[in-house]
Write a structure and sequence with these properties.
By secondary structure, this protein is of the alpha+beta class. The chain contains 9 helices and 5 strands.
């Protein structure tokens, strides 16, 4: 296969899969080495970005996926081709931030940070596909460990959780002091 045929085959694989697929699987299915496939994917991603097209090629922690360009979301919603994105309340965003930064994390750990029950928030985040079970803690009762999903990365424009913005230590200390003050007032 020449480069154009390989690109076409990659497009077919990504389109048919519908979700992110690991570059190693792509390479294996095309009888190519991972480095070559990674370079081809990077070139394709650049071309999709530069050309006036309705889709883009997204890298998600070593996996790749075809996705709609953000500029066309409103049109797709109007056409009801895609479901409307769920609205994330402050409680859901707070819970999601705790999970994203502390993952893998148990419900108890989330509740210790928030100071209230997190069952409803975690269940909604799982329902929205932003959070998932990633394992069990090796402790009595074997509590479930939670982490973010590829949908989380896609929705927040990240390639991996390592790209989450750094938390300013001064602001974190201020937030901690404010929370402790609120707790002691109750």
């Amino acid at each position: 296969m020449n480069i154009k045929q390989t690109e076409a085959a990659i497009e077919a694989i990504l389109f048919a899969e519908g979700e992110a697929i690991d570059e190693k699987r792509i390479a294996l299915s095309l009888d190519h080495d991972v480095e070559t496939i990674r370079k081809i994917l990077g070139d394709m991603q650049l071309r999709y970005r530069e050309e006036d097209r309705g889709i883009r090629l997204v890298e998600l922690d070593g996996s790749w996926q075809l996705a709609t360009k953000k500029e066309y979301y409103d049109i797709l919603i109007k056409l009801e081709i895609t479901a409307k994105k769920p609205r994330l309340t402050d409680v859901l965003m707070e819970t999601l931030a705790i999970i994203a930064y502390k993952q893998p994390v148990t419900r108890l750990e989330i509740e210790q940070v928030r100071g209230v029950s997190c069952d409803h928030a975690v269940n909604r985040l799982i329902e929205f596909g932003l959070v998932e079970e990633v394992g069990r803690l090796d402790a009595p009762g074997r509590p479930i460990l939670l982490g973010t999903t590829e949908a989380f990365l896609r929705n927040f424009g990240l390639r991996s959780a390592h790209e989450l913005p750094e938390v300013d230590p001064v602001r974190a200390a201020d937030f901690r002091a404010e929370a402790e003050k609120e707790i002691s007032a109750n």
